[in-house]
Structures are given as C-alpha cells and as structure tokens.
Design brief:
alpha+beta, 4-stranded antiparallel beta sheet, 6 helices, about 20% helix, flat
Length: about 375
C-alpha cells in the first residue's frame, strides 16, 4: 500500500508540475460572446418494436394525431393505440460561428414510460434556443449502444436504453450573429479568475504588440483594444493573441474525495510545523457456540449449547512523525508513507492538519 500511495501521488505531482509550464492563452480564457448555445426541442421516435410509450401516456398519441392532420389524414385520439412510438426531448449544442448547413450531434431522451428507444427513428424535430427561435432541425436513426429484453419472470438490460444519440442528426437553419464584426474592443474572460494570471496575460499581450493593447480591471477579464494595424482584421488579431503562451498561477489546494479515496494535491501546497501520529484500535468479538451432550451409552444427562466468546484487541503501534515548516508535497508523502498510511487514512490526516491550522492550502472535499 505504501508503494501504491507513492505511485499515485508521484503521478499527480508530475501532472501538476507539467501544468506549471507555459500554456496558450486560448486554453486559459475565451472571448466574450464566443460561446456555445443550448438547443432543445420535442419530437417523436417511431419504429419501436412494442417498447414505446403505453396508452397511459397521452402525449405521444396526441402528437401522432396532430402530425397526421398536418398530412391531411383525419384521426381521433380515441381510435389510436400506439406502442411503437415514444415521445422524446431532443437536445443539442450549437457551437459559436456555426453556419447554415452545418451538422450537429443530438441527444434523444424519452419523457414517457417507454421501455426502450433502441432501433427507433427520430422524426423531424425543430430545436429552439432560449429566445424561442428555431436554430436547427433534427432527424435520423437513434444509436443507444444498449438493449432491454425480458418476460414475466426475468429481464436483462445493458446500459441505458431510453436515451440515445443521433450523430450529425441536426442541420443548422439559423446562424448566430458574429460578435467580432465591427468591434474595436474585445473582452477576454479567464476560465479561472486570478490576479496574477490576468497580470501576466496583460504583460504578454502588450509585449507582443509593442503597445498598451491590453488592460485588466478585475482578475476575471482582460480588455483588448484592436490595434490600427489589425483594423478590419479581428480574426488575425485573435489568432495572433491566442498563440501567446504564459505561465498561469496555481492556487494551493488539496482536493479530497472520501467516497473513492482520491487525493489530489498541488505542488504549491505547504504545511507549518506539526506532529502527526496515526493509529487504530481493533476489537474483534467472535461467538463460537459449543454443543455439550452425554456419552453414547449414558443413562443421565441432556444435550446443551454452551456459548463461547473469543475477544481479541489489536492496537497499531505507530510512530510520532514531525513535519517541518515549509514541507512540500514530496516531504509530506514521504513522511506519511513512513507512518504506513493508506489513501483513506491520508484523507483523515489532512483534515486534522487543516483543523490544526497547519495546512497552508485550500481544502476542498467533494
């Protein structure tokens, strides 16, 4: 277990060290207005082999009647019983600068009591944005990578058969206006707000363009004035800026997941002088009933069950370890490995060290 803990933290330390190297600005921030937009719509899935919504769900029946009426076929809700149709919600993500005719992947999810939508076909479903405008239309065969079969006595199921995807199943019908055209000032929003990182971005941009192009008024954004040399060439300006590399500042943080025993510590984590000991008391109680009975030819006596209780107490003999002030992640791991702690033990120890005020980092428990 010592070697396992050392290996886990060693790998994490490598990843954290690598993240301290220079990173492109495009990986640390995004431009204001350049973002994805969520789309949602209602549709029908047909062609199901008796696994659609039941008669108790009236939504799909009314939808089928409305569809038939638009096609010139008169039908009544009371005269239709459908088991091969399921009412679904269709969702998709519209990326920035998507053009008419571009295709999107869509997610189809049953909203009734259908057993499975595997093998079904999604009929034409308009997808709307938050402004209630249609931006795409979805249709196509559904892929679920699952199945569900069963009878009265048993059933078998793989994955989740009531949700699936339609790859490239939606066509973009409406474009979102270009947010870069005609702008003299662009706002760059950091993914993680940090004063030091914002300051380094400002310095790198101004050094690149040899003028005070960038300015930051808060740790979460940087305002960029497009230079005259790039007037009417906003795309080229953005491309040149995104390629710049800086070293982001890292917050000292320890992330603990008590459910899985996962621990992630950044290389900037430090501790004050503290003494740590970790031990456990184990009490084992075992009941072993014994049967007492007379001999084979005995004329007197009776059979009785005699209870017997065995008790065993074990206490680990762990040493007291002193961690010196300013110890790094490597020092902490080596010292705790000498105490023979497991990852779950380490979670308890770090919580206690934080409670003692000796952990100079943010402790996040998920």
């Amino acid at each position: 277990m010592k070697h396992t803990l050392s290996t886990i933290v060693f790998i994490i330390a490598i990843l954290v060290t690598a993240s301290a190297h220079a990173i492109r600005i495009k990986d640390l921030a995004s431009f204001e207005g350049v973002r994805d937009n969520q789309l949602m719509g209602y549709g029908l899935v047909v062609g199901l082999n008796g696994t659609g919504d039941s008669d108790q769900t009236k939504i799909q029946t009314q939808s089928v009647v409305n569809m038939l009426e638009r096609m010139g076929i008169t039908a009544s809700v009371n005269d239709i019983k459908i088991k091969n149709v399921a009412a679904v919600i269709v969702t998709a993500t519209l990326p920035p600068f998507a053009k008419q005719g571009n295709r999107l992947d869509v997610l189809v999810s049953s909203m009734g009591d259908a057993k499975s939508i595997a093998g079904g076909t999604l009929l034409m479903a308009p997808l709307k944005g938050a402004d209630n405008q249609v931006y795409a239309v979805a249709q196509g065969s559904i892929l679920t990578n699952s199945f569900a079969f069963g009878g009265q006595g048993a059933s078998v199921q793989k994955n989740h058969p009531t949700a699936g995807r339609v790859p490239n199943g939606a066509l973009v019908e409406r474009e979102i206006p270009n947010t870069l055209v005609g702008k003299a000032v662009l706002n760059l929003n950091l993914s993680v707000a940090d004063f030091t990182t914002a300051s380094r971005i400002v310095t790198a941009v101004n050094d690149k363009f040899k003028s005070p192009v960038a300015v930051s008024s808060d740790p979460g954004s940087v305002s960029l004035t497009i230079p005259e040399a790039y007037s009417n060439r906003a795309v080229e300006f953005v491309a040149a800026l995104e390629r710049l590399e800086i070293t982001p500042d890292l917050l000292a943080r320890v992330v603990l997941n008590e459910r899985t025993g996962t621990i992630v510590m950044g290389e900037s984590v430090r501790i004050s002088t503290v003494a740590v000991t970790h031990g456990s008391l184990t009490l084992v109680i075992k009941e072993t009933p014994q049967v007492s009975q007379p001999g084979p030819l005995g004329k007197t006596g009776e059979t009785k069950v005699v209870p017997r209780t065995d008790m065993k107490v074990e206490e680990d003999n762990r040493r007291l370890m002193v961690l010196q002030e300013g110890a790094s992640i490597g020092d902490v791991v080596r010292a705790l490995n000498m105490l023979g702690v497991t990852p779950r033990d380490l979670i308890s120890i770090l919580q206690a060290v934080k409670a003692a005020g000796a952990l100079q980092a943010d402790l996040s428990i998920i």
